[in-house]
C-alpha cells in the first residue's frame, strides 16, 4: 500500500495545469489511516560496563493509527497544515548479527522484541499547492516536527534479565512531504500523502544497575490515506 500511495502522489503531482480551485480562507479537515514506517537502519547500543560499544543494535517496527490534519489556506496556492494522530505504538527489536550477545546475557537475543514505546509526532507544515484545472490538487510541503515519547517499557523477558528504566528523549526535526487532494465533489476529497520526518532520540536504560544508552535514529516515512472536507 505504501508504494501505491507514493506512486499515486508523485504521478499526480507532475500533472500541473492552469487553474486552482482553492481560495484564501478555505479550511480543509482530513481523517484516515496514517502509517509511520521507521528507517530500517539499526542504532548501536552502548553499555559502560562492557567497554562502551556492544555487538547489539536496535531497530523500530512500523505502526498504523488514525491520522488527523487541518489545513488553512491564506492564498490560493499557500496553506498551513497541522498533522495530528492517535498515539503510535512501536516494538523495539534488538539485533545481534555477530552471535556474541548470548555469551553476555545467556540467551539468544537476535530479532527479539526488547521493548515497546508510544509516541505522538505533531507536525506543522507550510504547503504549496500547484495551480491545476481539474479535481487533482497536488502540493509540496516543508515543516517542523515535535515528537514526544511515553509509556516506554521493556517486555517481560528482557525485564526478567534485568533491563529497566527505559527512557527516550523528545525530538525536534524537520519534515518534507508530497501530497494530493482529489475532489470528487465541490467539498469532499480523498487525500494521499507521503512525508519524511527527521526524528532522533537518545535512549537510556539500565541492566540491573549498569547504565546503557543508544542514539536511536527513527527517521520515518509517514504515509497517509484520508477522507477530507473543505469549507
From TrEMBL:
One GO cellular component, as annotated: outer membrane
Signal recorded as keyword: yes
Signal sequence coordinates: 1-21
UniProt keyword annotations, A-Z: Signal
GO biological process: transmembrane transport
Domain of life: Bacteria
Pfam families named in the record: OmpW
Protein name, UniProt field: Outer membrane protein OmpW
Lineage: Bacteria, Pseudomonadati, Pseudomonadota, Gammaproteobacteria, Alteromonadales
Amino acid at each position: 500500500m505504501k508504494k501505491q500511495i507514493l506512486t499515486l502522489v508523485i504521478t499526480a503531482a507532475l500533472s500541473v495545469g492552469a487553474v486552482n480551485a482553492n481560495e484564501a480562507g478555505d479550511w480543509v479537515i482530513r481523517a484516515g489511516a496514517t502509517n509511520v514506517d521507521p528507517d530500517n537502519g539499526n542504532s548501536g547500543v552502548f553499555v559502560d560496563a562492557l567497554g562502551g560499544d556492544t555487538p547489539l543494535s536496535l531497530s523500530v517496527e512500523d505502526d498504523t493509527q488514525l491520522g488527523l490534519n487541518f489545513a488553512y489556506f491564506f492564498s490560493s496556492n499557500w496553506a498551513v497544515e497541522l498533522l495530528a494522530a492517535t498515539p503510535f505504538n512501536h516494538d523495539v527489536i534488538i539485533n545481534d548479527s555477530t552471535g556474541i550477545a548470548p555469551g553476555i546475557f545467556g540467551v539468544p537475543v537476535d530479532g527479539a522484541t526488547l521493548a515497546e514505546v508510544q509516541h505522538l509526532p505533531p507536525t506543522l507544515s507550510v504547503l504549496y499547492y500547484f495551480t491545476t484545472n481539474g479535481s487533482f490538487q497536488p502540493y509540496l510541503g516543508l515543516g517542523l516536527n515535535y515528537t514526544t515519547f511515553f509509556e516506554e517499557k521493556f517486555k517481560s523477558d528482557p525485564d526478567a534479565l534485568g533491563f529497566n528504566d527505559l527512557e527516550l528523549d523528545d525530538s525536534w526535526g524537520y519534515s518534507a512531504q508530497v501530497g494530493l487532494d482529489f475532489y470528487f465533489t465541490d467539498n469532499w476529497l480523498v487525500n494521499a500523502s507521503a512525508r519524511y520526518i527527521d526524528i532522533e532520540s537518545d535512549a537510556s536504560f539500565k541492566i540491573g544497575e549498569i547504565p546503557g544508552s543508544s542514539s536511536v535514529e527513527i527517521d520515518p516515512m509517514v504515509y497517509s490515506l484520508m477522507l477530507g472536507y473543505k469549507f
